[in-house]
Amino acid sequence: MLDLFYKLHNEAGTDEAGRGCLAGPVTAAAIILPEDFENEMLNDSKQLSEKKRMLLKPILEKSSISYGVTHVFPDEIDKINILNASIVGMHRSIDKLKTNPDFIVVDGNKFKPYKDVQHECIIKGDGKYMNIAAASVLAKTYRDEYMEKLHEEFPMYNWKKNKGYPTKEHREAIRKYGITKYHRKSFRQLPEQFTLDL
Q1: Cβ neighbours of 134 (radius 10 Å)
Q2: Nearest 5 degrees, angle CA 92-CA 123-CA 121?
Q3: Strands 118-122 and 66-72
Q4: Distances (CA, A) of 126 to 96, 148, 153
Q5: pTM for this structure?
Q6: Is 80 exceeded by the pLDDT of residue 114?
Q7: d(CA 112, CA 149)
């Protein structure tokens, strides 16, 4: 059973999806849930089926006090690195909240202060607190939908299925067709690759 809050009162949970992908954005979300929010289905997005995540998405959007979602695209990831891109995405998602949070809980162990708002990093927080779990579901569903759109442009990589993660099938497609404008050039695209020809 997830706890609703770490502290209480206008507490924003934030998380990202797609950090380990070879292609596509890293997507971050931030959400403030009401104190009386309950949902038995809600859990860390990685523990949920795609069907459950898609069922939860409109519930979270409708029930939240406020939420924000941000894509940080490969060109920016390549410039500032994936950790900084994840944190930038979280900050931009918090910027989108219509209610200013009094406290921020972050999934993981790395974050940079957001304005003068206190925060706490919580390892595996998406399996402990509802607001982080809710942010993880929004980040994952928005990113998956985006990758499904990109799939239509480049079906040979099967992003509809692998969502840009380094599956064997995705890497075989890179070996055969090369990389696209949606691939992260700073990532090692193939296991045998030590330098990238840019």
Answers
A1: 32
A2: 45
A3: unpaired
A4: 21, 24, 32
A5: 0.92
A6: yes
A7: 31
